[in-house]
Amino acid sequence: MEGTVQHIDENKFQDEVVKSAQPVLVDFYADWCGPCKAIAPVIEQLSKEYEGRVKFVKIDTDANQDLALKFGIMSIPTVMFFSKGKVEDTVIGAVPAAVFKSKLDSLVKKA
């Protein structure tokens, strides 16, 4: 089982992210990306900690280039934090779990 992180594509983006009643963490990644692999276990762990409060999704930028272009993804991993369909914050690169937690806590407070 993948845990609580959903892998979605651009066809599900509107329903899963934009229309979500919960805040959403969106991890734009690629399978070949070393830093993406490095943060994957962190994202997975956080998805369990924030279960029921924040939705976690991953989007493969290679398979969803139009979506990556729409959001101006220039380097990966790029993690975007959505609330009520809008981007509230962005983190680029592999960062410590504490950075993600800080952003998630802020997102949950706003929701």
Topology readout:
Blueprint: E1 5-7, H1 10-18, E2 24-29, H2 34-49, E3 55-60, H3 65-70, E4 78-83, E5 86-92, H4 97-110
Parallel strand pairs: 1-3, 2-3
Antiparallel strand pairs: 2-4, 4-5
Describe the fold and architecture.
It is a single chain. This protein is α/β, with parallel strands linked by helices and 111 residues long. Strand 2, helix 2 (34-49) and strand 3 (55-60) form a beta-alpha-beta unit. A 5-stranded mixed sheet has the order 1-3-2-4-5, sandwiched between helices. It has a single domain (5-110), classed as 3-Layer(aba) Sandwich (Glutaredoxin), CATH 3.40.30.10. The protein is built from 4 helices and 5 strands; from the N terminus they run E-H-E-H-E-H-E-E-H. The model has no long low-confidence stretch (mean pLDDT 94). The radius of gyration is 13 Å and the shape is globular.
Summarize the structure.
The chain has 4 helices and 5 strands; from the N terminus they run E-H-E-H-E-H-E-E-H.
Question: What structural keywords apply?
Answer:
Glutaredoxin; 25% strand
Category from helices, strands and their pairing: alpha/beta
In CATH terms, what is the architecture?
A: 3-Layer(aba) Sandwich
How many helices does DSSP assign? 4
What level of helicity do the residues show? 40-55%
The Rg value, from CA coordinates, equals 13 Å
CATH superfamily: Glutaredoxin
What percentage of amino acids are in beta strands? 25-35%
Question: Segments where pLDDT lies below 50 for 5+ residues?
Answer: none
